[in-house]
Records
---
Amino acid sequence: MKSLRCLLVIGCLCWSLIAWAVPASTSTAVVLDPAQQQWLEQHRSLRVGLVLQAPFAQFDRRLQQLYGVNVELMNWLGRSLGLDLTWRNFPDQAALERALVAGEVDLAPGLTQTPAGLRLWLFSDPYMRVPQLIVGPRSGAVAVDLEKLGDNERVAVRMPSAVADYLRATYSNLNLQGVPEERQALQLVLSEQARYAVVDEAQLSRLSRESEFSDLAVVGDIGLPQLLRVASRRDWPQLAEILERGLQAIPAKDLEQLHQRWLEPKYPRLSESPGFWQNLGLLLAALLFSCIAIVVWQRRQLRQLEHHLLAARETINQRQAREEALRLSQFSIDQSTVGILWVNWDSHVRYANRAAENMLGYAEGAVVDRPLIDFEPGLHMDRWLELWKGARASNDVALHFETQCLRADGSLLPVDVSLSFLRFRDAEYLVVFLTDVTERRRALAALRESEARLKGIAGNVPGLVFRLERNPAEGELEFPYISEGSEALVGYTPAALQHPDMGLRNLVHPDDRADYHKVQDLALATDRDWSWQGRILTREGEQRWADIKASTRSLGDGRVVWDGVVWDITQSKRAELELARSQEQLRDLSAHLESVREEEKARIAREVHDELGQMLTVLKLETSMCELAYADLDPGLNERLASMKRLIAQLFQLVRDVATALRPPILDAGIASAIEWQARRFEARTQIPCLVQVPENLPPLSDAKAIGLFRILQEALTNVMRHAQAHTVQISLSLDGRTLRLTVIDDGIGFALDENRPTSFGLVGMRERVLMLGGQMTLESEPGEGTSLSVAIPLK
């Protein structure tokens, strides 16, 4: 057993060395207001008073330097605030206070706030907690409850001291034995003259390094910690505020590492323990005896092996069940709708579930290591310590109150707070449960308002308002409510429609009843909302168009209801049908006009090319004859005839361009050749490279579809030239089954499809051409990402 304890001690020492080797966190910047910054610039040199007492502050005469927890704390503050610190050493606190009165000291770390000290100093909030620990023999050590100790169990404590006064006032049953120093109290425990000793953690960390006290262990905490603060001159309140800002900027994990390095007890190495070699010899003897016993007891162990295996399997199953329960518990806490915070004694959050982070408006992990004053501005340190003591004293009884939490965006959130004290893994926490009461109050108010509004709306809606309900026991449907507007809409009274043989289904037109049943049955089977438009018949047989909408909700007793309304949309439906017919006729008319216009363009192109071309040819021939006959007579006439020939050539080109613009002759060679020809003309005009991909063998197209696709391509390239500012253009023509697809892609500046801009008649014209050809057009574009136009035309 002792050997096992030795191995545990070795593991603890290794972990301590690893923790010592991990570098401290980087300093956090201290934010000061302009007035504080100005005051600090004028008082950079400060005098620090230290009471030399291990491990808080000590002087190394060999290295001629100070070290200790208070020295490290002040060095951190000096670096973060840019202070020039001068150290003054004192043998006790009385000498330090005399130096303060004489004006020789500006601040002092590691002091405890007392009524007498408040007359001399200004104290900061506590930056470190030094508990008063109960120390007893390591062998058989268990947690100690001071209230259950008997008169024959003596407790050694330093007297006189505040700890002795606290124990005497709180635990009247204790048999206290006073000693002048903590060392003597521990020696009484070792000599069994006292059962336990009460020593503060700082002194225990100093004494535990000595091998004399290696057999002692911490078995409890009396609950009266010593709170260390930084004291400053009362006539410099600005210095107190600056020091408070600096202390708040110290990360909680840095303070915890400082506490672990200086104040937590550390035990001597195993080789220094007086019983180490004796235990090692006993261990070797036990190993030798075990080897002999293995040979003797082998058969007996074989018989017991099956029993042990079964027991081990059962133990493993139980452990797996406990681990699964633990995982489920952790998942439930993380996913709980109640905010849960674990808070340490210094009011910094150590754990926060996702619900708490959402309530307070912080990102995941942003709540940890923050003080509670960030969420409740009125929760200063003194009030927090009162809550801590109250929850610790009440133990299992939770404290409840309501407050308002400050969220990350500056808004206030009313919450119900429950505090519960928790001891977990040798640490103490205050578990804070947060319940948002805003939504509950808002929901109740909204429910009342909604019910009142629904009653008012249902009584004045110019239609039929209904509620359809399904009985969970019998599964039958019934109408518990139908508004009075049913008579004006369909001529039936609400009572007539509520009859089981009537309902809304019998109002639907016979031709639309199958579609209505399909929609309603699906909604009823899946407990979903449903919507339907169709024809209904009134009591007089009049046909009307109706829009029926119903939304579902579940009641607390398991019932499912659908709240809906029946609107009369006859006029709007008729107008919609008329508008659709009108649009169909206009599109047919537009297609006819476009066909006529293309035919007229082709006719004009032929006449311009044939008739005007012949006349220009004759005119050019006559001019050439005049040049041969009369050019030698007059040099000026020769120049005039040459100018006329150049004008005739330009007119020839103009005629060709006009005829080509009216109807390119290349269309007679097929749409693929026409697309390639148009792309080359676009390249020559704009100097923009144009990549073309067309299939080799295309089925023949009608003249209308070929001209339509060509005009769409012309309009698309015109838009690229005017607006796109593109560097390259890709054109592809592909055959997908019985669909011919034209795609134009540019790498220009693009545009937002949903932005408000003037009507683009080019896009409107392309879309109308596609609709006339029975196809579909898709346009995709984003600013800076170019534009893609895709047109799909059916071959039949």
---
Amino acid sequence: MIKNFFTTTYRHLWRNKLFTVLNLLGLSIGISAALVISLIVYYEFSFDTFQRDSDRIYRIVIDANFNGVEGHSVGVPAPLGSAIPNEITGIEQTVPVFQFQGDATIHVRIDEDHASKPLLFKKQKDVVFTNNDYFRLLGYQWISGQQSSALAQPFTVVLTQSRARLYFPDLSPTAVIGKQLTYNDLTLTVSGVVGDLDKPTDFNGREFISLATIEASSLKENFMMDVWDDWMAYSQLYVKLSANQSAQAFQAQLNTFYQQHNTERGKDITLSLQPLHDIHFNRLYPNIGGRIAQKSTLYGLMAVAAFLLALGCINFINLTTAQASQRAKEIGVRKTMGSSKRQLIQQFLGETVVMTSVATVLSILSIPIILRLFSKFIPEGLTADFMFQPGYLFVLLLLVAVVSFLSGCYPALILSGFTPTSVLRNQVSGLTGQTRHAGVRKILTISQFAIAQFFILATLIVSQQINYSIDSDMGFDTGAIFKFDTPRDTAETKSRQLLHTVQSLPGVELASTGFHAPADRGVSFTTVSFHNGTEELKPTTQIRWGDEHYLDVYGIKLVAGRNISPGDATNELLVNEQFVKEIGFQRPEEALGKFLNWNGNAVPIVGIMKDFHHQSTRSSIMPLLFQKNNGSTFHVRLKPNRDGQSWSHAIAQIQKAYHGLYPDEDFNYQFVDEMIAQFYEHEQATASLLTWAMSLSILISCLGLLGLATYTINTRGKEIGIRKVLGATVGSIVQLLSKDFVKLVVIALVIASPIAWWAMNSWLADFAYRIDMEWWMFAGTGLVAMVTAALTVGSQAIRAALANPVDSLRDE
């Protein structure tokens, strides 16, 4: 019986090679997209799901509200971690995690007896200060050293196995114990080696220094270990609650305890418990050096996968039901010989399972290639090997079962429903074009092109918005300007010397020092107020710093007043037009000379800057003030790049001067216009994804349309022959065969347009400055779809119209 099934299946697929290829292509494209997308989604939702009792693990975060300005931070006051185990009940584990300061980078020197000088590893990342509970919380495998006491003493460090191999490639994990490493000015002894975590996690530590080292060294002041009213993002705290402790009760105790230690600002701050499963997805609390996944993006990806998979299934249903007449006699003979409807359904569903399985195998083989092609969309750490996770293998089997059922169920019911008397009298073939099943095929074809046109519209609108955002006037110059940072812990004389050198270079037009660019990825708020005689106004205000050349470098215009004065220190401010409006003045010049209460001092406004965008066009322009400050960020405007080489030469000269003053530091720079474009990385990734989804949906739809057109033309061969004999032209025949398919595309546009308008209008609502959806976008989408359909069908129609009518009218 099994042999008969495979023989029948093989003969059917081989006899209908074109339809077999079209079905395999449609299913393979849909399944490939679904596999890759499901791999990404499964990977993202796998983060930090491996910890025992993960539902009891929380990160303590800060939600603040200062004068109506909301703020959120993953950092907490440094002494909190050591205080709450003794003051609050219901905690099983307390795990402080302090990132190594200095942009989370270090210099590691390894002193070997046989080495003439220490080995140098520059800017190592993922170094944290923590305690022994860290390893119990995450379930690390202990390779060497004593887990219970490895981080009990100061000046000890535990390494992951990968770092131990990097630093001591010739030593076993046991031999590494007792070796010394120098982290900047800290000399530490290796006290343990643990296995690397091989599961997705946002706990990125690879070198673990004992928390007691901070208290026993000069780092205590740097980490503000005794400061309750301030915090930095490098100080994080995780807790694991006891089994019978509720999160709400613990949080209430926590905030009561905190307000006792921070009486001045505690009323404006709430310490909240962030569940472990929320850490990877919550954009309000980003990890240092970590990555936040967007659930909305993942759900969008799942929708794209579902659409593409549905298109492949629709193709299969359309082409299989269209071939019904060719299998009618086979079905009649089988029923006459005693086959039941159930057996026929099993046969046809089995054929679908074979087709789906072959398509799935082809898709699996293509995944490594797809992951390389789309590497910029693939989360770091995700490889094809992740497919072999037990959980994902279950997803894979479920996918095959669902696709087989969706694709094969309806055709199997249709084919098995034929009556032997009708099919053996050859009545089915004459009816297939006009039966209710042809109507179903039309509905499915409309659905295919509605999905394709939705993607076309979405791609067009997203691309238009991105181009609009990137090309928008930011209110300051972005061309030929780049910025770079110098070490913050160096003497200011070096910075001044470098600035003088840069300004004197022939390829440099102007240079300035400060901090953020006018529009930057980072945001900096400040608290400032203005008393208008009746009330004190406190607008939510951003701040920028720079020297007296900063505005000229970026071409920021003043609409009133003057620039800040040169000199080592000035006590005056510039504000933008929006700030002037917020404090109640209609004309910019009316605010000149007014005093603001800032940092406890009365500081005059000496100039009004023309409004400029300080973030992407998603955000409205906010009140902003500018203060003189010679910061560690250099802003350099280059002269025109006339010969194509002058910019490169100027940057090389600046790099040489930089390394002359900072020989051990890397020189990293970024052009401001490139940084502005990075504001829209997420949107650009969305546009690229939509482009691929659009292309694949059009391809799948055209494959289905090609198959249906081929079948329809074949069944109407005698009609076409008679029309030609009676004098019909090639053009009239092509028009006759194409118009029905084009009508379906028009109907699909009518269905897709309002759905696309609603979806894109919701997406554009996130932008403060946005494009308008124009009528031509919808008309152009319909035109593209109609032309594509006409070309797909027309190629077959022309072939049929040019065929010799004698061939089609000859009796079989």
